[in-house]
Amino acid sequence: MEDGADGRSTGMKCLPIDQVAQANGSVVHDWHAEVVALRAFNHFLLHECLELSTSSTRTSPIIRRREAHEISDLLGLQPFSIHDDLKLHMYSSEAPCGDASMELLMEAQVDATPWPVERLHPATKKLGGVLLGRESFAQLGIVRRKPGRDLATLSKSCSDKLALKQCTSILSSCTSLLVNPANAYLESLTLPKSQYVAHACERCFGPAGRMKSVAGRTWPGGYAFRPFKVGTTEHEFVYSRRSKPTSSRELRTSNIAAVHNAHLQEALIVGRLQGRKKPDLKGASAICSKRMWRTTLQVLAALGTPRLLQQVTDSSQVQRWKDLVLFAHRQQVKADVRADALAGWFRNDGDDFEVELE
After folding, report:
1. pLDDT at position 256
2. Of 278, 281, 305, nearest to 294 (Cα)?
3. Cβ distance 29 to 271 under 8 Å?
4. What is the pLDDT of residue 170?
5. Which of 36, 74, 83, 222 reaches 20 to 30 Å from 105, CA-CA?
6. Res. 127 pLDDT band, cuts 50 70 90
7. What is the pairing mode between strands 229-233 and 186-192?
């Protein structure tokens, strides 16, 4: 990875379900570190695309313009690609919440009796099923929501989101309009050795585990099941829960999420910029959906692809954009994976918003 071509983050919270409808695209729903890092990387890609689209001489250390023969879509879809010789890697200082960390959770209990489902908030029960957090942790290989005994959220665990990314690539919806997904898959996920349980990671992410039904699968548009390798390191993050305090004060969890890339450095609280309380653009993070979609429109306008831009702007509501034929391949991948390998995935709907080109 080239210097600066990355996303770095901390964070461990998410937005409750009763606040999603008020987010208006300006609040980040999920600020667990893994998710924020992926959003930071997509933010970096969008700004690299913007710089390439506004200069004929500009080059990027991570993306390139695709040749005309590589773009089969008449609308000029996905004019950029990550360089062929680059590999994408992720490091997490903790095992991803959800299925990949269930054995670690069980091991940490004084009483290993799984917490009962009856303790769940009613809002986490959908369509006749139950989306578990850490409850009933003896159930393995299932889709789970973000942890928290009393947290009413439909935000899926980091394990589930990373498992899905093995099929959709790590591109977000807006970035997938501009960048071809073929080179946008994680090559590896590295965890501290203390946070790695081999059979848990294989069950969660591997082709012989719950993803078995999509093993070897390919889809149109450059999509495929591309499982990443899970490796380990002896090094621990200096501020991890396993680190010894460097002073007399004990280490405590923080509600602040930090995000950094070559174009960005921010601190977030409750999905908004630190110090801002209202869910509006003044308090919106650069990695929130509304700002990232607005950057996408700026790139489309700069590229001079009027038909593609019109396809998007004719439907100003973002949820309608995702139903367009432009996203048909990506949506098919998600539907196929959620129907079997990640069955029980309930969408966290409700945050629909409009985006206009500045």
Report:
1. 85
2. 281
3. yes
4. 98
5. 36
6. very low
7. parallel
